[in-house]
Amino acid sequence: MKSKIARKLRDLADRIDPSTGPRALGAYWNHSRNGFVFTMTDGIRVHPPVPGCPLWYMAEDYDRSFEGMQ
């Protein structure tokens, strides 16, 4: 059963186009007593691991997100 699920996930991963697929932002968010905490990294794997969830963005939306800022 596990091998079937793993195979299906590998097949789905092969369908993701690298030019438009999700990319890691190099930041993590975590909810604490003081609210949301965002931790930026330099894009390299952090040791010890940063607590929280990694943030991702869609490559095709990156340029569109800055259109209104100029």
Describe this structure in words.
The protein is α+β, with helices and mostly antiparallel strands and 70 residues long. The protein has one domain (20-69). Helix content is 24%, strand content 33%. The protein is built from two helices and three strands, in the order H-E-E-E-H. Strands 2-1-3 form a three-stranded antiparallel β-sheet. Strand 1 (22-32) and strand 2 (35-40) form a beta hairpin. The longest helix has 13 residues, at 2-14. The protein is extended, with a radius of gyration of 16 Å.
> What is the tally of beta strands?
3
Helix content: 10-25%
N-C termini distance? 52 Å
Q: Can you count the helices?
A: 2
What number of structural domains do the residues give?
A: 1
SSE order, one letter for each helix or strand: HEEEH
Overall pLDDT, averaged?
76
Poorly predicted ranges: none
Largest beta sheet: what is the strand line-up?
2-1-3
Strand content: 25-35%
Summarize, please.
By secondary structure, this protein is an alpha+beta fold.
Key features of this structure:
3 strands; alpha+beta; three-stranded antiparallel β-sheet; about 35% strand; about 70 residues; 2 helices
Task: Chart the SSEs and their pairings.
Blueprint (H helix, E strand, L loop, with lengths): L1 H13 L7 E11 L2 E6 L12 E6 H4 L8
Antiparallel strand pairs: 1-2, 1-3
